[in-house]
Amino acid sequence: MRMKYIFLPLMLILASTAFRIPQKLVGRIIPVTLMLALAIGILSSHYTFYQKVMSHEQEFYDPDTVKLMEWIKQQPEKMVFSGSMQLLAGVKCCTGRPITNHPHFEDSRIRERTLRIYQIYGRRLVAEVYQILKQENTTHIIVEDSICFARSNGCALKDLVDTANGHRTESGRYPFVSKKELEFSPIPRFCDVMKFGLFWITLITYYVASVRRVVANEHQLVVQVPGYSPKEDDAYIGVSIKATAGYIVRFEPFAHADRIHHMLLYGCDKPAYDSSFWEGGATCAGASHILYAWARNAPSLSLPEGVGFAIGNKGDPVQYIVLQVHYAHPFSGNVRDFAGVTMHLVDTRPANLAAVYLFVSGEAIPPRRDVALNNISCTYDGDAELTPFAFRTHTHQMGRVVSAYFKRSGQWTQIGKRNPQWPQLFQKIDKKIVIKKGDFMAATCRFDSHDKAEFTPMGSMGTAEMCNFYMMFYRSADSQDPFPWGGGCGGNENEELVAAEYPKDGVSLLPKHPEWEHVAHQMDKPFGVKQRLGVSKVGDHKLGQISGLSYGKDGSLYLFHRSERIWDGSTFDQYNKLQDESAINDDVLLHVDVGIASLKLRSSYGKNQFYLPHGVFVDDSDYIYTTDVGSHQVIKWKVESGNLKPVFTLGEKFQPGSDTNHFCKPSGVAVSRNDGFIYVSDGYCNNRVMVFDKNGKFIQQFGSASTMGREASKPQLGTFFLPHDIVLDNKLRRIFVADRENGRVQIFNQSGVPVQDVSYPSLFRDVYSADYDEEHGLIMIPGSRITENAQIEAFVCPAPSFKLQFSFRPTDSSFKRPHIIRIRDNVVAIGEIAEEGGRLSIFDIVTQGHHPQVSSKELYRSPDDVNDAGSPFFITLLVIASVLIACFVAYMRYRDVSDGNIVDRTGFKPLKTDDIPSDNSDEEEEYSRARP
């Protein structure tokens, strides 16, 4: 293959000559002689180069790869290298040095090792990346083009960390990693053909000390509503926490405009009250500093490189964080809100410190005006130079445009301009502008009051209006703070000047952007979760313990219950074998339509076919999959002539086991829409998930038992203490497992590699069931109360962060023993296994409707770019985009495609065996660990 590089120029010359004058090539000695002479000349002049090419054991001569191999040869022989399989195969062939993985697919141990190594390309914290590599005795990691794609400054350890969980900023910046902490490769690029350097290769040496410094340099601070339900319109609350020392570089909100009007994050020397929570609009006892503001579903905000908000350090004016939350309306139903903000901090002081300057007007808006302007102006008299880098606008429903400018030497310069009806994010300022001492600053809000009969006052209530422009800026960390008590302008220092000279562009309307306005739309009716019905009987069927639920493709519901059979301490012997092997003499699978006030029975199945029902799943072809903890089997059924007929059976009847042909009390089952693979949570004895293909052939298993002792408070990812329920995200190919006794939901990729877990030990100590919905995210429910007086609630954690945002419970009663939860669209079904029998509750989540996801990049786009599709600039962009697409296609041919590739993401003990302790339900159900 390498010979083609030698003869390629010759072949091109000969081919072109033959194409143009074939008759002169055939039978003519002179032209052929000339061609041969030319070939000999080229070979002679490049003889040394060809010798060098042929001396390397590789198909292509790539100088950077050669340099890499030569560099590796210079390192101590004990060094161990990790990276992609393809590159490491070359390392092994060319250098003979130890590697952790390579493409030897016949060896199962090598495959498993490669799978472990490839976890570094997934959603991992820096500490986890280090631990994965440390387990394989890795000393060096080779980071390739697929990780460094589109990074203009090379790549580093920071680029192995994913954006989706807030571990890294959207821009790829990870400010706490410095070149001093890592040893970088002397080889700058993997391929120097690309002009803009789309391919880099960086060799990073891992040292325990350096990684520990990196981990210690980053932490998160979360301020969260502790579960609040507003009782009146325009309710305000405050949540206070002590600030930890550091510098905020990123704000990540978790809230939704369906529930919340807006949130403001304040920095205080002292909070308004000594408590951590209060009702009312109070924030700080003294000086207050606005740190962040959110409304209308705005996305996260990452600060520029080298910029941070100083909090909690000695001498900082911010020693406490106060989150103010405004609720427009009370919720309907028993709903509690858990919204909040995650702050990402670094320990090292950045070169520049950030702050927010607020322009605010208190002037009432006159009625019957198509255009009503509220003006604000002040002169900046501080010594420090201010560099605005982001801005946010805020009004209520009447606002149309909000802008701000500053004037120097007769020249007006725009700070920012935005439609306040769009998502109220902090929009980034593209060009650098600097405000200096003596500059005149002004802002204006344009309102439309044509349908108002009286003056509209300014105020915090929803019936009033607001005129706010938040200017986020930075100054040198070495300069004096010009606003030690908080920066703001609340008047109109020079009314005549603003009225006469304020730029017309600052008050002109921006083009319509309906998708942004839809995302930002706030509810015109109260958010809530309303209980539609709660039943313990369907037709003539009295419900037993409801162990499983599944929605059909048409929205109908399948109920899997146990009739009169109860799981208690005598149900199984010490070897997990069922004591009573008689089948249940009733139909235990009910197919129902969910009506407004009742359930309508379509059909019932399963008489004398089940022993102790547990999980059920119905696929899009109406095949039914069930798990039976009594028979230790998973069965695929079809409905034929009104009866259930088995298609195939997994597991041996009444025979528990831990090999690939047996189950031990399998708890849940789910089937992928993508490939028909069957996922089974084999929970009560084996603590694993088993995967089968659509025909029932075993594919793989993953998971192991969690250990007791030190890890009990924070079990290791990928271990289980009773995997009790399992559901799938077919779109993103994720697996959600309710890890019951560990009190969490674990999220895995389709290969069974753990991505993250979701747990809130202060709110629940177990998770019996969970489901995933594209719009609402993860919904989960515990099976017991965390304290004697607490109420059991369902908890909703929207994607992608899976931070808890709200909870709900019934209005007509209380949950007693929830066992299974399922959601379809906005309808939630919850089945219980209480002592007196089963109960099914149906809830409706009342929202404004599905909100399309708009990327942060799209939302950050300058308003001036909204409708420029016909401009020459846009055409130029199309041409550039076409070239980039062509380059990207070429890149895709060589990229290393691995599961969880970062480039693909823009900007997861001993077991007792009884049922319930005193109320006979499902093995402390099902039986559980001892309660304190």
Question: How would you sum up this structure, described in words?
Answer:
This is (pine wood nematode) hypothetical protein. Residues 230-330 form the Copper type II ascorbate-dependent monooxygenase N-terminal domain. Helix 1 packs antiparallel against helix 3 (29-45). This protein folds into six domains: 3-51, no CATH class; 63-215, no CATH class; 218-351, Jelly Rolls (Sandwich); 353-520, Jelly Rolls, CATH 2.60.120; 528-706 and 715-846, 6 Propeller (Neuraminidase), CATH 2.120.10; 865-904. Helix content is 16%, strand content 32%. A hairpin with a 4-residue loop joins strand 41 (723-729) and strand 42 (734-739). It is an alpha+beta fold and 932 residues long. Strands 4, 6, 10, 11, 14, 15, 17, 20, 22 and 23 form a ten-stranded mixed beta sheet that branches. A five-stranded antiparallel beta sheet has the order 8-5-12-7-9, with no helix packed on it. Strands 13-48-47-46-45 form a five-stranded antiparallel beta sheet, with no helix packed on it.
Arithmetic mean of pLDDT? 80
Radius of gyration: 32 Å
CATH topology of the largest domain: Neuraminidase
Tally of separate domains: 6
Q: Spans with pLDDT under 50 lasting ≥5 residues?
A: 145-216, 850-932
Question: Which geometry do the CA atoms define?
Answer: globular
β-strand amount = 25-35%
**E-strand count:** 51
CATH class placement of the largest domain: Mainly Beta
Tally of separate helices: 14
Oligomer: single chain
First-residue to last-residue Cα separation: 70 Å
Largest beta-sheet characterization? 10 strands, mixed
